[in-house]
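1st attempt posting a full record on here, be nice pls
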Amino acid sequence: MLRDRTPRTVILALKWCKTLEAWLDHVYKSRIWLYSSNKERHEQTKIVLNRKGKTTTEWFEGTIDWINLSEKEKEHWNDVKDWVSWFSQMYQYVQNSYDISKKVGKSIEDIKLEIIKGYLKSMCPTTQDNAKEKKRKNDYLNSFVDFLLKSFENRI
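the predicted structure (as tokens):
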């Protein structure tokens, strides 16, 4: 129930961070499986899924049981929360740019470059980076853009 009712941007962020299953396990263990009856579990799932008056990032943050986490786990979930925030704020703009570029017949390479220049400048290598760091950033950036393109085509 939780998997198919979670916002798409959250699912994509979790998939990018390779933590979708870990998040689902965490939410079920800390919020839902605490209850013995199916009715109570169902009610708790509805409470977890209630996003009224909250941004997607605030909602996601509320699904994490921060009190019972180690410092390393808190750091991990904060990193994931940052990606949830990015996807919830930027994904629709990047997808719109992709859709427009596709309609006017731009090549995939041109679309990738447009996405990088328009939305991902902070991830780009800089002149201060050494060769190893530039390669690492380029590889990361390319894999992220490929991930976005697959998501636009609904292959993720």
